[in-house]
Amino acid sequence: MFSKRYSNSQRVGFARLVDDHIHIESSISALLDDLKDEVASPHDISIQLDALAVVIRKHLREESDVIQNTRLEILPDTWRETWIEGEAALLQLKVDWSGFVDHWTESRIANDVPGFSDAANSILARLSDRVKTETDCFYKTALSTGSIEY
Length: 150
Description:
The chain is mostly helical. It has one domain (11-145): Four Helix Bundle (Hemerythrin (Met), subunit A), CATH 1.20.120. It has helices at residues 14-37, 42-68, 77-103, 106-111, 113-145. Helix 1 runs antiparallel to helix 5 (113-145). The protein is elongated and about 50 Å long. Mean pLDDT is 85; it is low at 1-10.
């Protein structure tokens, strides 16, 4: 049912994915607070962004197994459509997030703090919304279909 990368004892569970979301939300909040309060240097902001990118990259690898192994055929039609739309939205967010992280190097942040702040507020709000939606809806669906365990 899951990829060969995980045995049954290694399967990513609901609680672990939600814990990742809590960590991601906390990191987003800290980064946005530092931007708002203008207390962190571009170097510090860059380090926070890199750390968040690592957490998200790891999380997305694990989450992709859940997405690929969710048995959509047992979902009601309307929820199946919602799941498929959500998967497409996730793919677009991945592309946008990757572009954001690749573009905003420490030197670019230093040269355009207001531009970075605007871009960060936009992408991080989308990321935060996505995390909440996954926690509240998609993970519970994956749990109910047997794609993940608690």
